[in-house]
C-alpha cells in the first residue's frame, strides 16, 4: 500500500476509476483504494458514499486513515452481505458466544471448587470490557446466520474471519 | 402529508409526504437518531437501502444502522468494528482460560 498521499500509480486508484474521474496527485483515496481491489471501494461507496468517506477521512489524522478505511470497508462488506443487520449481527453473535463461554467457565470453576481446589481466577477477566448497549431489538427467534466477511454462509458456528488488526489496537472513545 | 414532520424531513427541511420512507422509523421525538445516520451514511443512501428491503425488515435495519452510525461518531477510526475486535479478543482469552481451567479440573479429578 502506498504510504505517501500522492498518487504514484500510473493507473487511477480504484475510487477514481469507479467515479470515472482523473486521479490527481494527493487524491485522498489513492493510498487506501488500490486499483487491484475495486470491490473495496465499490462496497464503501454503496453504503457510505464517496463524499461522506471524504469528509470522514478529512476529519482524521493521516496516520489514522488506513485503519479507518479498513474498518469502513469491513462494515460496508458486512452490510452488503447482510442488509438488515450488517456488523450488528456479528456483534450480537459474538456477545452470545462470550456469555456462553462465561457460563462454561463458571461451571468449570465450580467444578474446581468442588474438587477442593479453590481458584483465585479473577472473574473480571470475563467481564465484558465493553458493553455495546443498547443493541437493536432482535426478533425472536434470532437469525442464527451471523457471518463476518469471509466466513462461510449458514454455519453460524464460527465468529469468522478475525480482523487483520486484531492485535490489541487502541480503541478511541467507544463508550456507548 | 404528515401533519407532523418526521425527524428526517425536519432535519432535511422538507415537507413530510404521507408515504415518507423515513417517517415510520424516525419519529420527531428523536432528532438525534437521524442526524447521526445522516452524518455517516447520508439520507440518499439510507433511503436506497430501505427501499431494497422488505417492509417488515426495515425497522431492524434502521436500528442497526443507527447503532453503527453512533459507534462511528463515537469512534471515527474503528466504529463498531472496534467492538467486534474487542469481543473477538475476549473470546480468545476466555477460551484459553476455559481450556486451562478444564485441564486443571481433569488433573484434580484424576488425583
Automatic annotation (TrEMBL), chain A:
A Pfam match: LOB
Signal peptide coordinates: none
Transmembrane segments: none
All copies of domain LOB, residue ranges: 11-112
Family the UniProt entry places it in: Belongs to the LOB domain-containing protein family.
Protein name: LOB domain-containing protein
TrEMBL record, chain B:
Pfam families: LOB
LOB domain sequence ranges: 4-105
Family membership noted in the UniProt record: Belongs to the LOB domain-containing protein family.
Name of the protein described by the UniProt record: LOB domain-containing protein
Amino acid at each position: 500500500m502506498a504510504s505517501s498521499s500522492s498518487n504514484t500509480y500510473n493507473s487511477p486508484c480504484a475510487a477514481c476509476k469507479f467515479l470515472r474521474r482523473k486521479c490527481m496527485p494527493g487524491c485522498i483515496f489513492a493510498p487506501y483504494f488500490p486499483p487491484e481491489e475495486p470491490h473495496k471501494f465499490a462496497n464503501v461507496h454503496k453504503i457510505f458514499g464517496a463524499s461522506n468517506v471524504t469528509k470522514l477521512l478529512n476529519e482524521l489524522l493521516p496516520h489514522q486513515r488506513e485503519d479507518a478505511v479498513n474498518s469502513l470497508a469491513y462494515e460496508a462488506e458486512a452490510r452488503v452481505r447482510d442488509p438488515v443487520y450488517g456488523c450488528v449481527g456479528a456483534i450480537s453473535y459474538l456477545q452470545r458466544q462470550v456469555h456462553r463461554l462465561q457460563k462454561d467457565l463458571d461451571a468449570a470453576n465450580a467444578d474446581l471448587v468442588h474438587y477442593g481446589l479453590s481458584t483465585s481466577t479473577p472473574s473480571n477477566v470475563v467481564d465484558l470490557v465493553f458493553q455495546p448497549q443498547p443493541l437493536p431489538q432482535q426478533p425472536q427467534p434470532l437469525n442464527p446466520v451471523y457471518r463476518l466477511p469471509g466466513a462461510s454462509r449458514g454455519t453460524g458456528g464460527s465468529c469468522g474471519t478475525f480482523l487483520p488488526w486484531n492485535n490489541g489496537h487502541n480503541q478511541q472513545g467507544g463508550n456507548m | 402529508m404528515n401533519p407532523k414532520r418526521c425527524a428526517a424531513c425536519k432535519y432535511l427541511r422538507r415537507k413530510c409526504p404521507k408515504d415518507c420512507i423515513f417517517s415510520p422509523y424516525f419519529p420527531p421525538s428523536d432528532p438525534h437518531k437521524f442526524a447521526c445516520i445522516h452524518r455517516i451514511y447520508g439520507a440518499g443512501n439510507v433511503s436506497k437501502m430501505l427501499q431494497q428491503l422488505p417492509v417488515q425488515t426495515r425497522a431492524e435495519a434502521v436500528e442497526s444502522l443507527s447503532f453503527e452510525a453512533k459507534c462511528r461518531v463515537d469512534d471515527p477510526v474503528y466504529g463498531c468494528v472496534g467492538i467486534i475486535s474487542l469481543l473477538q479478543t475476549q473470546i480468545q482469552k476466555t477460551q484459553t482460560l476455559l481450556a486451562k481451567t478444564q485441564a486443571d479440573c481433569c488433573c484434580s479429578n484424576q488425583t
